Amino acid sequence: MIKIGLIGAGFMGGTHSACYESLLGNGYFKVTAVADPDFDKADKISVKFGAKVYATGKELIEKGDVNTIDICLPTYLHTEHALSAMEKGYNVFIEKPVCLHEDEAGKLLEMKKKTGTKVAVGHCIRFWPEYAYLKKLVEDETYGKLISGVFKRISPRPMWGWDQWLLQGERSGSAALDLHIHDVDYVRYILGIPVNIKGEISSINGNNEHIFSLYKYEKAVVSIEGGWDYPSCMPFEMEYRVRFDKATVVFNSGRTPSLMLYNEDGTVTQPVLQQEFDSESEGLGGNLSSLGGYYNEIKYFLQCLNNGDEIKIAPLEEGIESLRLTMREIKTAEK
Ligand SMILES: NC(=O)c1ccc[n+]([C@@H]2O[C@H](COP(=O)([O-])OP(=O)(O)OC[C@H]3O[C@@H](n4cnc5c(N)ncnc54)[C@H](O)[C@@H]3O)[C@@H](O)[C@H]2O)c1
What we know:
Blueprint: E1 2-7, H1 11-23, E2 29-35, H2 39-49, E3 52-54, H3 57-63, E4 68-71, H4 78-87, E5 91-94, H5 102-115, E6 119-121, H6 129-140, E7 146-156, H7 169-172, H8 174-191, E8 196-201, E9 210-216, E10 221-230, E11 237-244, E12 247-252, E13 259-263, E14 268-269, H9 292-307, H10 316-334
């Protein structure tokens, strides 16, 4: 039986808990412990599962009846908790970005090697239906080769974080490492490491709150924009526009229909995707209206553990490569 200890009962803790709730019928896992210094938040989740509440993540790892740890903590706390959990031999899910510094990445990789535990990173865009669809178009060359791509993720400042940790660059990595890394990871996932990178930062307050980057591949060019310096009244938006030889595919999370295919022969089609789980979930908070790829990634993680399979889609090593690529971008932008 997979026994999960969920650490951090904020926005992502609540989202993961909604995923676990939807998957409970599978019968091969339980959420046995929840930790958060805010007892009410932890309790609200724990009652759904009959789980025990702990005041801190460290206490849960030490004393909980668990064998799997799900880390939904502010990013600067990821590494110390992941190391403690792995040392105990527990499998771990770490929210993205996996960590903030190269020395942390080294310690995590070393501990994984030493303990042989399974570690997944929450690069949920890899599991988002519209992005999984695009990856398949690239792989199958359904409309020929990818020629160019524009990826965008914009948002008002994230004000929901505990103790305003998201607004402090040294605790969150700011928009470049917290928000933009979603698309950096995804572009690397479908196209690999670019041959050349250019980055530019537009900064209002000295934090990396808005980053623009240009990736040059041998036969393709991709631009990526990520920023959270917009007014609070502006909606969150994620978007891509990808031009293939024979068609252009456009996705925008704020539009209906959100996904369109413009064919070179002048016809327009609206791809219909199989949504395994797409219920509108009340009260998720943050910038969420549905469980989208979160449900798919949690289900995948649990299935890998249950079947004893290697985590292939977003393992620790992949989270670290995407962290390194984003840090490279920030460096080129700061030059
Ligand atoms: N995958 C995504 O799309 C996505 C979206 C948002 C956030 N995230 C990531 O998820 C992580 C959590 O972000 P969030 O938005 O949920 O933050 P949050 O501030 O909403 O929640 C963090 C929670 O951790 C708790 N906490 C603090 N110290 C603790 C400790 N020592 N032990 C136990 N609990 C503790 C806080 O009380 C708070 O409830 C971050 O790494 C963030 O980057 C990922």
